[in-house]
Amino acid sequence: MKHPFDIPESKKIRLIINTDAKNEADDPFAIVHALLTPRFKIKGIIGAHFGTYRTDTSMQESYDEVVKILDIMKLTDEVPVYKGAIHALPDEETPVSSEGADFIIEEAMKDDPTPLYVAFLGPITDLAAAYMKEPAIAEKLTALWIGGGSWPDGEFEFNLMNDINAANVAFKSTIPLWVIPQNAYKLMRVSLAELAVNVKPYGEIGAYLFQQLIDFNFDMVEKYIPAVIERAKKAGHEIDPESLSDWPKGEMWHLGDSPIVSLLLDDHQYGYEMKPAPRITEDMRYVHYQNKRMIRVYHYVDSTFTLQDMYAKLKLHYVS
């Protein structure tokens, strides 16, 4: 993609995006923002699964959504797309096969001095699988993960729920890891009115980003929540519909995946702390048990910086 300005080559980074793009509506905003960013040499985008709570083809749906975004932006021939794992790790010792994991290994092991970052917007399955297949990647890349419950106790969190085993593999690995947990990524609060003014008018992709969010609001109420309740019922579980009625709220959203862009533009030096990696229980709580393996845990993301950068890049690219 041709950008309206450039930066020194020495300031650029290689980036792989791993995304459950069709799970909900925020991943596409982060993908588009990254594609419009001159600092990033995007080497590939991997479609990720998002569990089976409403579909049995979640990875393929994510893959198809990435293909659709690239087609709208006329970048189909510029950015390769790969298929990630179709399901979570069965345990912490057994990798699952995916071309996404293989691609991470391939890119990490290249003789390229440009720093490599791999950003995970959903479950961290493909990173764990790649590491188990080739542990040497730990010295070749830095991983960012949008996921995990609020620090320091933990709680239910969707990306984590879809592969707790993979999170534990990554946490006990030697991979440099930046974690943006729920209490940090939910700072990315935005209203639909703000997106209607700052995103919708800018190109076919701006209109698409806005409309797919509007559509998801209705689909969640009319299709997805009933599907979740029905699947749970078939599995022998009863879900109170009222417990699912608070989200989405209707006129606002959390663009929770967008920090992958702003943190790679500026790492928010005072927005994180280095913490010993915990172990994660089946109920998604953190067990703090060691003090040697350290990870970067974010407690703050600058939403104004993030959103204004996205709005500006849409306008720069799509105002004639």
UniProtKB/TrEMBL annotation:
| Xref: Pfam families | IU_nuc_hydro (PF01156)
Q: Which residues form the Inosine/uridine-preferring nucleoside hydrolase domain?
A: 15-223
**What does the record give under GO molecular function?**
purine nucleosidase activity
Q: Which InterPro entries match?
A: Inosine/uridine_hydrolase_dom, IUNH, Ribo_hydro-like
Q: What domain of life does the UniProt record list for this protein's source?
A: Bacteria
Q: One cellular component GO annotation, for this chain's record? A: cytosol
- Which key words are in the record? Glycosidase, Hydrolase
Q: Which GO terms describe its biological process?
A: purine nucleoside catabolic process
- Protein known as: Inosine-uridine preferring nucleoside hydrolase
Species name = Evansella caseinilytica
The organism's taxonomic lineage, starting at the top: Bacteria, Bacillati, Bacillota, Bacilli, Bacillales
